Inverse folding.
């Protein structure tokens, strides 16, 4: 009985961090869907977001409820500037070149953060209470629960927007056929810009949630790699894939970490990637013709 | 420029990849409210002409190197493709290019972006469905699963949603059965008659194009070789022979005549 309860608690914690993976994966998906660019710097934008929150809340002493939207806006602004300044001039270049630009961008962001805030890990000012929540008998960290609820709400909002909002139609149309989207009067560069802005804003928000749970450090962008596994397994252009893939990977990582030991988390994560790529190279929910890198 | 001209092209030249010249000083004019057809063989540059007009050329590394294009009296140089669409110039591209993952209705919704900033209140879904009842039946189906004819109807339907002043139609007959071609061209003619929208129609099927066009241009290797009112073109001996497939001097043509065809065609280029 206690074993079952323990499994449940481990699973709930896994779903919580899985929701954050889903949220970060959503940033990848949004950007990939619109621009066919795999933005490897999503993890670093996430890291930047958490540091911005740290600067606003701890450094400038702003209320966390003001610091949070500011951090998200800061991430979004970074996305907009990067799209306009680095990505759009690369339009029409080979996908691998654009990909490498985002890899470089990631390193630059890490360097920048280390210059400003140093390399030591820090913790964010607490804004979610430490008191645990009990679901029935199972214990859940309140931070993880909040992260889960926020991530779930954002994912649901995006799924609805994509289906019912005109702007969602514009993004899906652009994803399917850029020239045809232009011919329908859709502002294609505007869609690119919006996808980068919103995607990076989401990543920054995910960074704040992640930082609240585990603290922040310049290397926390590695979390983005796990999210990348999620989108590759779930399908690079599928929000549903990001959601399910994120939750699943969160669960699996949590189980592996608990029952096999923490050192197995990475092995299991990337082992899963290899198996998934062997079985379905275009992802579980993705469109079949995916560009190869 | 006369106020009754919706589109005027003056001596345009287009070069792809900074190396391949496709258009060499092409000029043509579309009077307001009329259907003008642009005919020519494969590779003559018909689609390129349309892309130059709608400015989608840049997506394919093409460049307008000289000449100018006036739409509704204004030079289109420097305009983004989507801005032109919002000004009323709609390009129905070759091969239909419907958004396969989107439903029929969503495809039409995508085209409502063409109305942005024009203060149009209602979008004309009903009008589209009245011209193409098939689309109404299948409005919740994914466009990728439609038949070729239905996809062409959808492509034209998107143009209608945009309430344009000029529609560029790139080979609407492509890959369709003769019966469907007739059906679609009948509707195209009706749309022109009833809404007064001007059209520039690119075709390989000269017979159907002549059936609905008021005026025609014939192009070869990047420039116009011949033009005139449809009736005059249809009576022209060479047009009849090379584009409408009527034998020059009665009776079926045999392969022996192909040599003769090549020789005769040379005057055109």
């Amino acid at each position: 009985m206690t074993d079952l309860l323990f499994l449940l608690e481990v699973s709930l914690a896994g779903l919580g961090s899985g929701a954050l993976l889903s949220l970060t994966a959503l940033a990848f998906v949004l950007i990939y869907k619109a621009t066919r660019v795999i933005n490897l710097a999503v993890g670093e934008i996430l890291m930047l977001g958490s540091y911005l929150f740290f600067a606003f809340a701890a450094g400038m002493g702003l209320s966390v409820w003001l610091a949070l939207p500011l951090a998200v806006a800061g991430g979004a602004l970074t996305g907009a500037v990067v799209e306009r300044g680095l990505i759009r001039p690369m339009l029409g270049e080979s996908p691998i070149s654009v990909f490498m630009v985002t890899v470089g961008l990631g390193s630059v962001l890490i360097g920048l953060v280390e210059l400003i805030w140093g390399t030591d890990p820090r913790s964010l000012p607490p804004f979610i209470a430490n008191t645990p929540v009990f679901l029935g008998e199972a214990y859940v960290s309140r931070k993880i629960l909040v992260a889960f609820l926020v991530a779930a709400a954002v994912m649901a909002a995006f799924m609805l927007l994509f289906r019912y909002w005109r702007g969602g139609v514009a993004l899906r149309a652009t994803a399917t056929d850029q020239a045809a989207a232009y011919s329908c009067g859709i502002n294609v560069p505007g869609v690119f810009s919006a996808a980068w802005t919103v995607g990076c804003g989401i990543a920054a928000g995910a960074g704040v949630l992640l930082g609240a749970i585990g603290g922040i450090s310049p290397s926390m962008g590695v979390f983005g790699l796990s999210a990348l596994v999620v989108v590759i397994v779930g399908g690079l252009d599928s929000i549903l894939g990001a959601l399910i893939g994120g939750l699943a990977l969160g669960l699996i990582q949590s189980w592996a970490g608990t029952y096999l030991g923490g050192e197995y988390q990475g092995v299991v994560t990337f082992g899963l990637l290899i198996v998934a790529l062997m079985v379905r190279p275009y992802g579980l929910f993705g469109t079949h013709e995916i560009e190869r890198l | 420029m006369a106020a009754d001209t919706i589109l005027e092209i003056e001596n345009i030249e287009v070069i792809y990849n900074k190396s391949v010249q496709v258009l060499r000083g092409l000029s043509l004019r579309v009077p307001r409210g009329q259907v003008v057809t642009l005919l020519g063989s494969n590779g003559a540059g018909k689609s390129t002409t349309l892309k130059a007009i709608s400015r989608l050329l840049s997506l394919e590394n093409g460049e307008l190197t000289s000449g100018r294009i006036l739409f509704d009296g204004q030079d289109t140089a420097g305009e983004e493709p989507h801005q032109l669409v919002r000004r009323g110039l709609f390009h129905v591209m070759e091969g239909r290019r419907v958004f396969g993952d989107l439903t029929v209705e969503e495809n039409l919704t995508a085209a409502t972006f063409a109305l942005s900033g024009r203060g149009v209140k209602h979008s004309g879904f009903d009008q589209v469905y009245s011209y193409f009842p098939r689309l109404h039946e299948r409005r919740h189906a994914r466009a990728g699963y439609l038949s070729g004819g239905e996809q062409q109807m959808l492509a034209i339907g998107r143009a209608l949603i945009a309430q344009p002043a000029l529609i560029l139609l790139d080979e609407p007959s492509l890959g369709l059965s003769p019966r469907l071609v007739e059906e679609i061209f009948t509707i195209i003619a009706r749309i022109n008659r009833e809404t007064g929208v001007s059209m520039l129609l690119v075709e390989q099927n000269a017979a159907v194009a002549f059936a609905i066009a008021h005026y025609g241009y014939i192009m070869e290797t990047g420039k116009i070789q011949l033009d005139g009112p449809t009736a005059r073109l249809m009576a022209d001996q060479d047009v009849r022979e090379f584009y409408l497939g009527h034998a020059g001097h009665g009776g079926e043509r045999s392969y022996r005549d192909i040599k003769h065809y090549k020789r005769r065609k040379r005057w055109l280029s």
Summary: The two ends of chain A are 48 Å apart (CA to CA). Chain A has a mean pLDDT of 89. The domain at 2-279 of chain A is CATH 1.10.3470 (ABC transporter involved in vitamin B12 uptake, BtuC). Chain A has one domain: 2-279.
